[in-house]
Amino acid sequence: MEYAQATKTVPEHNLSQELLEQFCFNLKSLRRISKAVWIDESELHVEGVNSVKQTLERLKFNIVEMKDETATLDGGDVLFTGKEFFVGLSSRTNQRGAQILADVFKDYAVSTVNVTGTLHLKTFCTMAGPDLIAIGSSVDAEKTLEQMLSLSDHSYSTLVLPDDEAANCVYLNSPEKGHILLHRTAKEFPESAKIFKSLVNYTLIPVSNTELAKVDGSLTCCSILLNKGA
């Protein structure tokens, strides 16, 4: 997982909506499931998807679109660990959507887990480093993590955070700076910030997300991580 370059989409009138759109990628195969974000297909949403789609096409990514009208797959429910996929079954993602993801990424195991008490899987569970899962401390988060670990053939360490929302962070592996982690600020979640500071050899970048959080937006909603060299 190495991410070194930032690419911006064209600044359109619908960018604020686009910030809340999450897309799921296989960072090695460079393929994508598109139009699988919000269940509603408003004109504003479609324009936002098309803007990102055009950017990905310009970057020479192979795009795979989901055609099944019964399938729902929200990027906020798709967690790629670098070794396998976990798909959260929630109000915005169903079993059919997870099956389509598995059909596209045949080289990786795809396991489904039940998500309760929150909107998305990645609201309280993301990757904080190689084989390191950031997870919240709520009962719902613990149940989901237990499912994930029981379904996996791989070993993972966990970074347990007092606040579920703080477990939504963005990990990058930079050739120049090594491990980089974007996480919520100490002002928002002081106890969780202390846990992040315990990470060794990380460049920590606190990012305030107070306003986006009011409309269920998380840090992972605001970017798409690409590995162009894979």
Automatic annotation (TrEMBL):
<feature type="active site" description="Proton donor">
    <location>
        <position position="120"/>
    </location>
</feature>
<dbReference type="GO" id="GO:0045429">
    <property type="term" value="P:positive regulation of nitric oxide biosynthetic process"/>
</dbReference>
<dbReference type="Pfam" id="PF02274">
    <property type="entry name" value="ADI"/>
</dbReference>
<dbReference type="GO" id="GO:0000052">
    <property type="term" value="P:citrulline metabolic process"/>
</dbReference>
<dbReference type="InterPro" id="IPR033199">
    <property type="entry name" value="DDAH-like"/>
</dbReference>
<dbReference type="GO" id="GO:0006525">
    <property type="term" value="P:arginine metabolic process"/>
</dbReference>
<dbReference type="GO" id="GO:0016403">
    <property type="term" value="F:dimethylargininase activity"/>
</dbReference>
<feature type="active site" description="Nucleophile">
    <location>
        <position position="221"/>
    </location>
</feature>
<comment type="similarity">
    <text>Belongs to the DDAH family.</text>
</comment>
<protein>
    <submittedName>
        <fullName>Uncharacterized protein</fullName>
    </submittedName>
</protein>
<dbReference type="GO" id="GO:0016597">
    <property type="term" value="F:amino acid binding"/>
</dbReference>
<keyword id="KW-0378">Hydrolase</keyword>
